[in-house]
From TrEMBL:
SUPFAM superfamilies: E set domains. It holds the Pfam family Arrestin_C. It comes from the Eukaryota. This is Arrestin C-terminal-like domain-containing protein. GO terms for cellular component: cytoplasm. GO terms for biological process: protein transport. Residues 2-133 form the Arrestin C-terminal-like domain. InterPro entries: Arrestin-like_C, Arrestin_C-like, Arrestin_domain-protein, Ig_E-set. SMART domains: Arrestin_C (SM01017). It comes from Medioppia subpectinata.
Amino acid sequence: MSGGKVMCRVRLDRGGYVPGESICINAIIDNDSKCVIKKTRAVLTETIQYTAKNKVVFTETRELAAMEKAKIGANCAEQWKNELLYIPPIPPTNLRGCHLIQIQYDLYFIITPKGANKAVRLQLPIMMATYPIRNSDGTLKRRKGTYYPSTLPTTRPWLSTSEGKLK
């Protein structure tokens, strides 16, 4: 960014989650530049790598959830305080017993400046599990915005034809 610097600190409440929970995002963006920041955005992504004969044959990345905040003026600051990003029903990181499919989840915090400057992407890898964290007495740790879904998504549009049969 021309004419100064932009500093950003992003913190998540933890590094592992289960579907139905929400990621608690805290961030401080100090825009000590002459450039206006058009928006800040948090994006949860899933990257799946398919392997055959010890080679990655196909990689797909999709956006699972996102939230954003409006512009930050020159020489101003913005704060994300306990912003909750809901995790939809998804499979866990690295399917147990399956070495052909690798799944990785990341939370990207993206700062998009106004004008021709490129966006800055901060990558925070996170783990998806199947068993939620429990209190010492065995009860679930619950927080507002937490729902534990009973099913995982099963459809992949590129696997089905219009008749609903596999290609």
